[in-house]
Predict the structure.
Amino acid sequence: MGLVAGIFGIISSIIALMIGGVDAAFSSSGTSSVTGLGYAALLFSILGIVGAAMTKSKPKLAGWLMLVSGVGGFISVSMFYIISAVLFVVGGFMGILAKKKDQAPQNMSAQ
């Protein structure tokens, strides 16, 4: 779920960067705050993908990374990031609330 959210997040941040570039081209100052926010969303997407990759080894940390990515990306580019934000937040809570499975003791007796 986190990997799919990261891919959607990268796509949405690229769209935000394109819109920011068009805004900068037509603005009188030649700059746009949307471009900076698009870069922030791109970094949050990459952070979320890193979190998704860590789900097997460290599920709690991975959950927090995905949760931060979902909230931060949504704050950065709002509605462009809505699909990714929902997927990251759900995946993040799944990682945070996951219970560690105890391995059953192995029977070492040879029969």
Remarks:
- The two ends are 44 Å apart (CA to CA).
- The CA atoms of residues 44 and 69 lie 5 Å apart.
